[in-house]
């Protein structure tokens, strides 16, 4: 779905970040501009991080005026910024031109600046413990709206002499449900003549949409792949992730094996540890058996609370035992640090709330 654009004098303006370089070149050539102007605009957008036409001081004023007349340089109005007590996590709530909201999170680590970005407003997957899934689906984001989230924080980090080191498509939405736009955003951010973020610095997370996983495998991308698994049996997983009824565990795991064999890359499995639901040693043993022989890593994280799900996070003892069972079986495992929980910026917590500002249909 193409989102509404901002308007200027009654004419809808497209978002400039929705254009790839060939499209931008074609547009400028239609205005009679020399070929090198497109590269200047491109580098201004993605290297200099300029955010409005008047910033492009290397362009003739007439061309700057044309850009302002024909394009908008933002689809996002920041309406709230929250900072976690951990001092390392910030979450921004953005309003889109059609009134939808998305959230984006910056996480600072000792040697990394990781952005968690959204690919949809809402989500159609309906995972029971996820705040975005509880919202329901609103619409897909365009490729420009996906990548603009990165540029907003890139400008802030640049002012501190830094830049994003990693981008995870683990925010609002199922990125494989918006495959073309998600991949176009990654490709555009990876352009060596532009933002130049290597493919291995991106990770895309999916609940297991098999056609998209197989397409991803055929494309042999170097982007990291993460699978939201959360259970080792179909009965348990279907109760948490309704998509499992359509794409059962055995098929998802087989697709992951095909992915690792084709690309030589490791796949990551995400597991939200929920007390007395999926955190027992027996469940860990079932998971270890399921993953035997697969080039993979398991990220476990105690459940983050959401208003629409009554489950509780696992105890420290259960977390430790779960990890030990996996490691004893030869499965690589990390307990992920919970970040930004006090501002609902943790995994599964992103929605569209802002101090009483709700966009509820």
Please describe what this structure looks like.
By secondary structure, the chain is α/β, with parallel strands linked by helices. The chain has two domains: 15-70, DNA polymerase, domain 1 (Orthogonal Bundle); 77-343, TIM Barrel (Alpha-Beta Barrel). The chain is 33% helix and 19% strand. The protein contains eleven helices and 14 strands. The protein has helices at residues 21-30, 36-46, 61-70, 131-135, 143-158, 179-190, 210-219, 234-240, 249-263, 281-291, 316-328, and strands at 7-8, 11-12, 77-83, 89-95, 101-108, 113-116, 120-122, 137-140, 166-169, 202-206, 224-228, 267-273, 296-302, 332-335. β10 (202-206), α7 and β11 form a beta-alpha-beta unit. α10 (281-291) packs parallel to α11 (316-328). The two termini are 18 Å apart.
Provide a quick synopsis of the model.
This protein has helices at residues 21-30, 36-46, 61-70, 131-135, 143-158, 179-190, 210-219, 234-240, 249-263, 281-291, 316-328; strands at 7-8, 11-12, 77-83, 89-95, 101-108, 113-116, 120-122, 137-140, 166-169, 202-206, 224-228, 267-273, 296-302, 332-335.
Task: Write the SSE topology.
Layout: E1 7-8, E2 11-12, H1 21-30, H2 36-46, H3 61-70, E3 77-83, E4 89-95, E5 101-108, E6 113-116, E7 120-122, H4 131-135, E8 137-140, H5 143-158, E9 166-169, H6 179-190, E10 202-206, H7 210-219, E11 224-228, H8 234-240, H9 249-263, E12 267-273, H10 281-291, E13 296-302, H11 316-328, E14 332-335
Helix pairs in contact: 1-2, 5-6, 7-9, 10-11
